[in-house]
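Narrative progress, year one. The postdoctoral researcher (J.K.) led the effort to move from monomer predictions toward full complexes, under supervision of the PI. The following entry was the first complex the group processed end to end, covering 322 residues in total.
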Amino acid sequence: MREYGFELALCAALESDERVVSRQLGASIHGRRIIDTVVLEPGPGFDQRTTITDRTIPDRLIEADVGVGQARDWRRVFPDLRPERARSRIDRGVEIGFFERERRGGTLRVRQTARYPGAWFDRLVGIENKPDLDRPGELQRQLRQDVALGLFDEVILATASYVTGAHRNRIPDPVGIWRFDPERNEREVIREPTPLDPSAGGIDIIAERPGRTEIRTVDPEAKRRARRRLAERAYGKGWRPAELPACANCDPDDDSRDATVPYCTYHDRIVEPAAECGPECPGHGSAEPPAFDRMTERAEHSAWVRDPKGHQRRQAGLDRFG
Ligand code: SF4
């Protein structure tokens, strides 16, 4: 079982209209760590968040010196930046629907389209996928890193392997273990996770070498912001591939899942288009990619809201305002 297909099958199985599922997101603050799957569970401000934009709102826009009530001279929104950089950030905020512009007294002003809600997500669950535990790679180190930092409320290892006592002993205690069968779409909880404490400080493991571990301590405020960044990326990104392979052997309908995945009838499994598809594949047969609207599908299957209405969106660039 290849990891990509396992991961897509698990994402499809976890998705529901009460959560948002995403994949391959940065989960470190100072170091490098990409977590395979993130499950975001909505908090009380979720509906408010969905009305603003369906994209990721970058931290630098959320923290900009501008609010909802009073429009601010655009030059004071990012006072530390050069004008071109400030303009481009404001343009980005307008493009995604988080900022809007108005001209007053000959001055271009900027405001937020809506209040950014504080508690819009409740729990973040991080899942590392390792279908074959006999080829663990860096699994132990990655899970140690996740537990030490405590960015997630829970961390889970998902595998297709039979989990032996020896495997369990190598997995850090707080990490839950799922056994997932991607063909039958069945998930068995082998061990429940122990909740972590995202509101406390943590340790970011930057590098581990024999006899030497490089770490940085992280205070609760830095973690709070890192969680918000992660939640924003999860909300904006999702897990579906950008497109399906342009190959006659890609047939998503051959797969029993509700979600559209790049199922290959030649290999009889989900394939990773970017890594496996193309003229050099022996089964490749040139064709139009299967029709697939991932945004519509995502909106139908998850708590994510596509293209919310009600706010001024995609105004012209600042240049238009002179
Ligand atoms: S290019 Fe190869 S791997 Fe990709 S869908 Fe076609 S047959 Fe399958």
